[in-house]
Amino acid sequence: MAKKRVKSESDRKRVVAANLQAHSCSIGESESRRGVSSASRMGPGALELWLCVLAIFLCGLLAFSNNLDGEFIFDDYPAIIDNPDIKSLLPPWPLLLPTPNSSPLAARPVPSVSVAINYAIGGLDVRGYHVFNNAIHVLAAFALFALVRSTLLLPRFSTHFGLAANRYALLVAVLWMVHPLQTEAVNYISQRTETLMGLFYLATLSFAAGAFRSSRPQFCYVMAVVSCVLGMASKEVMVSAPLLVLLYDRLFVLGTFRKALLTRRWFYGCLAASWAVLIFYQLNNPRASSVLFDSVELSVLDYFRTQLSIVVHYLRQAFWPYPLILDSHDWPVTRNFSGGFFLSATLLAVMIGATIWGVQRSAWWSFLGAWFFCILAPTSSFIPIVTEIVAERRMYLPLAAVVVSVVFTVDYVWRKGHGGTHAKVVLSVLVIFTMAVMTWSRNQDYRTELSIWADTVAKRPGNARAQENLGKALMKEGHFAEAVQPIMEALRLTPDRQQDPELYTNLGRIFSQLGRFQKAIDAYQQVVVMSPNDALAQYNLGNAFIRVNDLEKAEFSFQKAITLDPAFIPAKGNLGMILMKKGDYAGAEAQFQSIRTLAPGVASSHAMLADLRVEQGRFAEAIPLYREAVRIDPGAQNISERLAAILAAHPEAADNLLQNRQ
């Protein structure tokens, strides 16, 4: 009887698996195409599926609901705040054409358009950008859920996992979604390049997997190709997607590369054609400032050696996500074949070798190894990204391979040990809850520029870039006394100070705000030495000289600034004031008249010339100038007060002006 029951159970599983195999590529595709009644469509299977979708949505909502007020940081400034291209959706060419610039969105049209839509809807209201980023992440989790579910419903896996495909897919998707290692990609607004690429990468594979098990695959094929194209236009890491789809087909469906290419030649031809999009957007070398093959400080070999330890670091973070660090710019470069290098190299060589061996033997787990290494390869191999050697967001997609490996390994060991189902559910919930709490806590670090840079400096105090950004964040909050130490520390840590005039500029600003003007002068003089053709540096130095009443040196600095930039209005205004104070009225008038020509719609342009007329005792000429300034800016209280004072002290000037007009 026991044998009969086993056989019966096995037969039941095969029947169910066969039924599951008949499902279409889309999760929610109507069963009516297969002649299923509307009553059966709302059966337990459909209900479980929609409950899984709801669970993913709620987990994502709860884990990231506290990040909506997080401020713009670091690359968000060139990407969003200072990026003129995203300030308008029309004409679309600045967003769609591969125009090189310093923005992380350069030559990445899909993220650029998404940011432009955010700006069109809410300007620089940061909440809209976070809502969009969170939505992308949740959609990516849905795509991962669909991919795992479709895979488990394939004939190769359906006998063992078909009945529980929804539950396994749910566990993988939620663990991946709420993992703390994902917080950088989700919270750091301009890094939606990573999350959008991840969404389209997962969608490409998910639609392909659906097509492979569908009797009507055309729609899924089209959507897989569209997703692949959009991914190529999101970030360069998408380059491996067509290859991963082919490997998926070879390992899980058709059995050989040759059969896959012959059977679906048009599909793979279209996927390969999506590389043209990537090539087109790389023609102008948009990453020229960050991807350098001829860098003296970081050679290709040095970068490769360093990445071996970094990939191992990523793996450790996947299992123990602490500490999480926004910027590890001071990560030590491996310049020789040390013991640490050989340890990392051996571990990764074993993993890569096992992956190749597994592919040759059609082992299902080899796909996870290929997934991990192929997606990391563009950023974490031999292509030197000198501006950012290590970045947690690069694990956004590779983390999925780690999660799947852990889930199914633990499940296998658990079943072998005859563990209870209820205990497994409790363990899963506990792990998800722990991860979500850690993610919630990490979101708090991103709430302000000051908090995230303070966290980064606390964890990596030797990071000069983090120290500098902490100082700038403190300055922005008005904490100038506290900003001195991180800026000074950034100067100490910077190997070549001559290449960092911005540090001295910030130091000069701090000392000026603190009233330590001689130290401000010393800092600005360093900037002038480093950047002799920088008009702003000359202007800042001139202002510092004014504060110590050294008008001769201030005049020289302003003259130099105007020589470098003839349209530098603030320098012209300050120079005119100095000349007026010296009694050089002709020189002062030349500067003030130039300002009126350059900025006729600015109230102060007219008020400065009016001040000169008052200094000259030409009150009747000053009055219309003051009145024009007040007309332009009725809220300029100081100008209104000066006009009232002149009218009260010199009524005859107003009378003379009236008589002259008559």
Walkthrough of the structure:
The structure is a single chain. The chain has 34 helices and no strands. The longest helix has 27 residues. Helix content is 70%, strand content 0%. With 662 residues, it is mostly helical. It starts with a helix and ends with a helix. The protein has a domain of 280 residues. Helix 6 packs across helix 7 and helix 23 runs antiparallel to helix 24. The N terminus is likely disordered.
Topology of this structure?
Layout lengths: L1 H20 L16 H4 L2 H21 L11 H6 L11 H4 L12 H14 L3 H27 L2 H7 L3 H14 L4 H5 L4 H21 L5 H15 L8 H14 L2 H7 L1 H9 L1 H8 L17 H20 L19 H22 L5 H11 L21 H19 L4 H25 L3 H11 L4 H13 L3 H14 L7 H13 L3 H14 L4 H13 L3 H14 L4 H14 L2 H14 L4 H14 L2 H14 L4 H13 L1 H11 L1
Helix pairs in contact: 1-8, 3-7, 3-9, 3-21, 6-7, 7-9, 7-11, 9-20, 9-21, 11-12, 11-13, 13-14, 13-19, 17-18, 18-19, 19-20, 22-23, 23-24, 24-25, 25-26, 26-27, 27-28, 28-29, 29-30, 30-31, 31-32, 32-33, 32-34, 33-34
